[in-house]
């Protein structure tokens, strides 16, 4: 038995959010509710106007989180099990919903009783002190907590135990020589980068495509415009990666790789994720105001489409991949809007088919890796194992359609006007086919598990094909006149 186990008569009261679990139940339930019924967004201000207890009650009464999916702090659970074996009475005292707390207590099996919030009482800070004193008397309990709101309880408890405390709680614990079960650890830049999925920013290089094809990529003004558009789109995309992760917390925790994401793993608190997303959105809009107004319209359209995708669309059969392909194509449109270069219909048609193929390969890989039986739907998606062959055929067909569009474009009068040696560009067709077919072959071999666009940006063979494509475009161009005038 752990030597720290206290055999005294005082009960051990344990906070839930941030202490027993490395997350906040209110935030989790809020995002689950919005995902289930987006119209509830309109009701949130009305509920909040009726007071914090009512606000929490309205959310908790509509959502039932699964206790088995929550990210429990292993050190805390192990400590409590030791205390329970030693005969200690353990109380779950939380500002979250009492009903949900009771379900968690029943799941873990070592809590003696539960104290929680209801529609009239928000059991937080001093209110929790009053409830614990009424039940166990002055200094009749030890308390395990983590936040600024727990300091009032720490000061009343016989003994305080700080678990991964925030700055205020950590300062109090050091000043009073209180025990720290898990020392505070600031969120590292590596963790933040992982939450933002910075590696996905490579997708936004697509913003430069219109300028490259229009031979304006080396103009100083265009370079500045593209740089601003790149970061504006990257910040906004990262904000919605966070939002998407918040909507999918429970589902991600059951996934072999997504469970390691900072929010799903409990390494980053939901509130921190929300604050970060808001900062990124504001930064994106601030940069967008420096670019042509059309770019802000594209950002607005991307915001609506991405939010809708995160809420509902990604669960709809086939509609999801069509929207996903469109979101890639929007980046090309954003590049046109940022630089005032009119988008080519040929380029947009090629982009839709090319990125539809990549979106389908992404779904194929998810379905193939899930290992679920036939007629069972992929978690959070509209697909079943028997759809794999159809997805594969549609994806390869979309890739070939993209090449057909490219071939038709190469025969257009526009190409003959801007390129001195347009016949050279025909070699682009086998390069594009190689990239698409190689991804599909690797996917069917189960040797591919990354985002396809990120894969192309990081795979040396794909990079070689892209570089050869660039050489072909230069070779077909009346160099150097077209690039520097």
Automatic annotation (TrEMBL):
The chain crosses the membrane at residues 222-243, 263-287, 293-311, 316-334, 346-365, 391-411, 423-443, 464-484. It comes from Oricola cellulosilytica. Keywords: Cell membrane, Membrane, Transferase, Transmembrane, Transmembrane helix. It is a multi-pass membrane protein. PANTHER family: DECAPRENYL-PHOSPHATE PHOSPHORIBOSYLTRANSFERASE (PTHR11048:SF5), PRENYLTRANSFERASES (PTHR11048). GO terms for molecular function: transferase activity, transferring alkyl or aryl (other than methyl) groups. GO terms for cellular component: plasma membrane. The lineage of its organism: Bacteria, Pseudomonadati, Pseudomonadota, Alphaproteobacteria, Hyphomicrobiales. It is found in: Membrane. It holds the Pfam family HAD. GO terms for biological process: glycolipid biosynthetic process. The keyword Iron does not apply. It comes from the Bacteria. InterPro entries: HAD-like_sf (IPR036412), HAD_sf (IPR023214), Prenyltransferase (IPR039653), UbiA_prenyltransferase (IPR000537), UbiA_sf (IPR044878). Its main location: membrane. This is UbiA family prenyltransferase.
